[in-house]
Amino acid sequence: MKVSSKGEYALRALLALGKNQGKVMTIQEISEKTLVTNSYLEQLLLQLKKFDYVQSKRGAKGGYLLHKDTNEINIGEVIRNLEGPLSPMGCASITKYEPCPLEAGCQLKPLWSLVRDTIAAVLERTTLEDLLLNRINLLEGEKLDVFKA
């Protein structure tokens, strides 16, 4: 899994909106906070609106604001919606499985599956609120449940 600029910038926009929750922000204001160009930001905000993370307000005092509470915005879901599967390889993907001619007896598939499960475990348990409150550091040193004996 590789998070592209699309996913990174979308998360930056959500963080900017989350820091100003309840306040309508213009694209220019969001751009200044995220260092993302207005034109690219417009495209991203339309996608975030499509997935119901943000809403837009028209008019002279228009702009964007979060449509959900920060504790309801799951980072794993955002990344999947914008970037696609979390798996590093198609053969290990749960949502977009792609068969491989070498899959039978493949010794790499368990590794790719573990990578997928580990990434998913971290992203799925992280909300926008966790990022805003810097609670991501609680994961350091924790044993993840995805490791199977």
Automatic annotation (TrEMBL):
Gene3D superfamilies hit by this protein: Winged helix-like DNA-binding domain superfamily/Winged helix DNA-binding domain
Keywords: DNA-binding
SUPFAM superfamilies attached to this UniProt entry: Winged helix' DNA-binding domain
Pfam families for this protein: Rrf2
InterPro entries assigned: Tscrpt_reg_Rrf2, WH-like_DNA-bd_sf, WH_DNA-bd_sf
Descriptive protein name: Rrf2 family transcriptional regulator
Organism: Metabacillus rhizolycopersici
